[in-house]
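Entry type: protein chain
Record version: 2
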Amino acid sequence: MNIYSCEPRRYTGNIPGMAERDNEMDRIKGILRENPKGLTIEEVSKKLSLNRSTAAKYLNSLLMSGQAEMRALGPAKLFYLTRRLPILNMLSLSSDLIILLDADLFIQSVNDTALSRFGLSRDELVPIRIDQSPLMAFFKEPYLDAIKYALEGHESAWEDSLPLGENRFFFKMKAIPLVFEEGQRGAGFILEDITDSVAYQHTLEARVSERTRALEDANRALEKEIADHVRAEKDLEEARHFLQRIIETSPNLIYLYNLDTHDSRYVTPNITRILGFKPEELEKDLIDLIDLVHPEDRDRIRDLVPALQQTQPGEVVEFEDRMKSAGGPWIPLRNRIQVFSRDTTGRVREILGTAEDITEQKRAREAANMAKKQIVLLNTVTRHDIINKLNALSGYLLATRKITDAREVLDLVAKETQIVNTIHRQISFTRDYQNLGIQEPQWVDVQAAIKNANRNIDTPHPPVSIEVGDLEMYADLLVEKVFYNLLDNAVRHGGSITKIRFFSEKRGEDMVIVCEDDGVGIPDADKEHIFDRSFGQNTGFGLFLAREILGITGLSIRENGVHGKGARFEILIPRGAHRIAVKT
């Protein structure tokens, strides 16, 4: 059974007149492709030197098989190639794993992505009942229940994980009802890989394809009456709905771009979510996609056209670029494109592609790299400090053996004890910073983080005012320790403070979180040093660690209070690392 919107597979048998019919059909599609605004039956007949009734028969055949569309132009009928996107081309760019089943739970089609991920061949699955197939090594009983539920006409969706190979992958799973071309009920089982979203929040896609056999059905459609034609139109509409459902569930931008006219014949609606533009703005030539590409990336993209020229049918070319959003920022995208159509000389005319927003992936990757560098630096510096202290301790111990005076011995013992305590504090500090970057940065609710930090302060302290609204910041999950250290610093060193206040304020495109108190403040000479390691009466590690935690995601901190009137710490959050949460 075949989904109606798939391109029919060419029959190679020796049916009398079939080769001539196929040749004439190809000629008609070619002349319609060269005249996208459409031609009448009379015009096709004249251009191709065909009998008018023969031309009408072939045009109606294209119309009934969904390869052409028709509209009335006065008393005449105007025929033109359909503008829909072939489902095979669309599925070959999807990142989803797709399995199609008939009403008896026999697998009718499995895309290449699913075969690859499950490590199975098509012959192992088609046509076999799913509950008797190798897929049951991966599937659970509720999956079969959902597929049976879909056969009753109900859609269901859930999330689950599967062990594939040596790793476990997370999927968003859907079981949806389908109708095949012959009208039989069926079900589609779709698995969208959300592993990267669980780990980093923007990546991945895989290719899908679907083969159909429709030649016999197309031949039968030529012999059928009006009732068969109505049924074919109904099946085509259901297939279009199926294709639209697949497109709408894809998180990626899908587009069809004409290299000759430099316009987009088709853009999926989620371009509004990714870039902020409306699809009609691109489809009506109001905006050229290439004009949205970062100037540094345009030449590289243009250089891909010759490479596309050499690709085989269905072959995909992958690249990354940056595109300007309606709001202004450049959005990093991962593109996968393939040739959609060529002109009569074989030159690439249109490309079909998908674009995935990888902003969160790049941001998380950069944060992980930063955390790794900071941990290496901290380990090196801490190890160096401890070795120096141990060398000093060894010197004191050696001197102690040679001194007989009790006072001098006690003085050396005191120094040795101080070194031991310092080493102890340094080793304790490593317990805090060793967790830097262990987990990927996430969007953190600032108000909740401050409240949690305040609850952990066991020293009596004045009330803490929190005025940050629904602000969220993209930061390492240890950011709560930053707020704890600011509160602890105020309580321990602020003197007779009566209030501690947190609030946020916008500065241009940046956001600032302010922590201030009415204590003794910090002398101007110390403002630049309070974030250094081992500064102050204690270890100095608290504010030093706070700065390192913030630095992982590009945030910074400074103190600019007035000495004698209180401390004032400002955390600067650059554009892209702050947002206001939408409460539901």
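Comment: Residues 140 and 162 are 10 Å apart (CA to CA).
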